[in-house]
User: Fold Copper transport protein from Cadophora malorum.
Amino acid sequence: MDMSMSMSMATATSTAMSMATSASSMDMTTSSDMMGMSSMAMTFFTSASTPLYSMSWMPASTGQYAGTCIFLIFMSAIFRGLLAVRVNLFQVVRSARGQGKDETCYGMGNKANIRPWRASEAAWIASMDCLLGGVAYLLMIAVMTMNVGYFMSVLAGIWVGSFIFGRFMASSAAH
Assistant:
C-alpha cells in the first residue's frame, strides 16, 4: 500500500512537473512573442534615428534626418505629379507624339466617344498604375513607421504636389 501510494505520488509529481515545464515553455514563447509585439510602436513618436525602408537607411544625425524628410516630401510631390499624368495619360501621350489634344477617353460620355481598346494604350495604363502603386506603397511604409516627421513630410509633399499639379486634375474625379 505504501508502495502504490508512493508510486501514485511519483506519477502525480511527474505529471505536475511535466505540465509546469510545458506551461513554462509556453509562457516563454508567448512572452517572447509579446516582447516582439511590444517593441513595435503603436503610437506616433518623434525620433531622428528611425530607419526608412531598411536598417542601412537610418539617419545618424539631424542633417540626415532632415534629408530623409526632404526625400519624402519630394517623393510625395512626385506621386501627385504621376497621378496627374495618369489621369491625363492619353493627352500626355498624344502631346508627346505631337498629335494634338484627344477629347475622348475610356468609359466617359456616350458610346460614340468611348475609345476602342488598344494593347499599346493598355500597356501604358498598366505601367503607370504599377508605378503609382509602387510609389504609394513606399509612402505608406514611411507613414507606418509612426515617425511624426516622416508622416508630416508625406503630408507636406502631398500638399506641394497638389499645389503644383492640382490644376491638371481639376476636371478629374480621381483626386
Summary: The radius of gyration is 29 Å.
